[in-house]
């Protein structure tokens, strides 16, 4: 009974959270019995069950999970949903999950996982097609469903979809005479330096031109892949599993990004994850930020000093002529 409820909660969470913007996807563990009960219908039972969902806390991720869990509990009074806060750094979260799996722990019933994990973790999860997921799979982007399908088994339903964005301060671009956001990395460098110099001259010595994710984790891999792709340097590993990173275009853009550290980006950017970059940005101390869509609503919150003073555009282009 508990395992059936796991899948039902997962579907509710996926449906509710699709309207939000943030980083990942949701799955459930392996030992569930096959059933034809539709995933959108709660089980007809008064049995008291408790379900634990592992999720992150980047931005308002944890709050969204709690709200969705409460909605499900309101619909199903016999179910208690416990939301487990896990590390924000994805490699730390994966490490925790692997500990659970290695110990065959029943601590967690539903896992929020990253988009690149299905192949590695599929053996630990149920096939959601056996729980009515065919009825909802068509509501999602086909490429994401394909990504979450391993050997014909759907091991995860998309929760939200991400894309890297360039955030920019509209008021500061206007102040310094720019009529449009940067379309290339070269333009970003010039604008970031000009605005940074001007803001510091006006007395804000904490101001920086550009913040991003530079810590040694998956976030930096995402940023670097965006730089490399925009410069025509490939995708690090090609679709046919050939490592392609060692090429002049890739080397050139990585070398270029390295020059940002300590010039238009703070020296500490090499330790930044998403929330570190957002903290600088949302305090009004950056002209540009690379981040995920989740930061948009947070930047426009009532208590944000930059509310209404920024916008987003696709990431700049490199020598390839288009952004990633």
Tally of DSSP helical segments = 12
Which parts are unreliable, with pLDDT below 50 for 5 consecutive residues or more? Answer: 1-42
Oligomer: single chain
Inertia-based shape: globular
Largest sheet: 5 strands, mixed
Strand order, main sheet: write it out: 3-2-4-1-7
Q: Give the CATH H-level superfamily of the largest domain.
A: Periplasmic binding protein-like II
Structural class: alpha/beta
Number of strands: 11
The level of helicity is 25-40%
Q: Calculate Rg over CA atoms.
A: 22 Å
CATH architecture descriptor name of the largest domain: 3-Layer(aba) Sandwich
What is the H/E order?
A: HEEHEHEHHHEEEEHHEHHHEHE
Query: How far apart are the termini?
Result: 45 Å
> What count of structural domains?
2
Residues in β-strands, percent: 5-15%
State mean pLDDT (0 to 100 scale): 86
Which fold name is given in CATH as the topology of the largest domain? D-Maltodextrin-Binding Protein, domain 2
CATH class of the largest domain: Alpha Beta
Explained architecture:
This protein is α/β, with parallel strands linked by helices and 324 residues long. It folds into 2 domains: 157 residues, 3-Layer(aba) Sandwich (D-Maltodextrin-Binding Protein, domain 2), CATH 3.40.190; 149 residues, 3-Layer(aba) Sandwich (D-Maltodextrin-Binding Protein, domain 2), CATH 3.40.190. It is 37% helix and 15% strand. It is built from 12 helices and 11 strands. A 5-stranded mixed sheet has the order 3-2-4-1-7. It has a 4-stranded mixed sheet with strand order 9-10-8-11. Strand 2, helix 2 and strand 3 form a beta-alpha-beta unit. Helix 1 packs across helix 2 and helix 9 crosses helix 10. It is globular. The N terminus is likely disordered.
């Amino acid at each position: 009974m508990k395992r059936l409820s796991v899948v039902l909660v997962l579907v509710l969470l996926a449906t509710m959270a699709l309207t939000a913007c943030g980083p990942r996807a949701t799955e459930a563990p392996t030992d569930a019995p096959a059933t034809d009960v539709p995933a959108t219908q709660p089980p007809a039972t008064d049995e008291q069950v408790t379900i634990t969902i592992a999720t992150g806390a980047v931005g308002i991720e944890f709050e969204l999970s709690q709200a969705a869990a409460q909605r499900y509990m309101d619909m199903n009074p016999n179910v208690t949903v416990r939301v487990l806060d896990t590390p924000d750094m994805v490699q730390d979260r994966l490490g925790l999950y692997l500990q659970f799996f290695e110990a065959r722990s029943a601590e967690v019933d539903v896992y929020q996982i990253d988009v690149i994990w299905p192949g590695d973790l599929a053996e630990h999860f149920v096939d959601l097609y056996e729980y009515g997921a065919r009825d909802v799979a068509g509501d999602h982007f086909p490429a994401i469903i394909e990504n979450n399908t391993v050997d014909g088994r759907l091991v995860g339903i998309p929760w939200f979809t991400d894309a890297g964005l360039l955030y920019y301060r509209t008021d500061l671009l206007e102040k310094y005479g720019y009529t449009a956001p940067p379309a290339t990395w070269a333009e970003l460098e010039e604008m970031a330096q000009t605005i940074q110099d001007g803001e510091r001259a006006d007395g804000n010595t904490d101001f920086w031109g550009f913040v991003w994710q530079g810590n040694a984790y998956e976030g930096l891999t995402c940023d670097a892949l965006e730089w490399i792709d925009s410069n025509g340097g490939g995708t690090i590993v090609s679709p046919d599993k050939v490592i392609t990173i060692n090429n002049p275009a890739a080397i050139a853009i990585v070398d270029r990004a390295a020059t940002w550290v300590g010039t238009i980006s703070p020296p500490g950017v090499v330790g930044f994850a998403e929330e570190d970059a957002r903290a600088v940005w949302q305090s009004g101390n950056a002209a540009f930020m690379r981040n995920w869509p989740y930061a948009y609503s947070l930047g426009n919150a009532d208590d944000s000093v930059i509310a209404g003073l920024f916008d987003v555009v696709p990431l700049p282009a490199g020598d390839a002529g288009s952004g990633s």
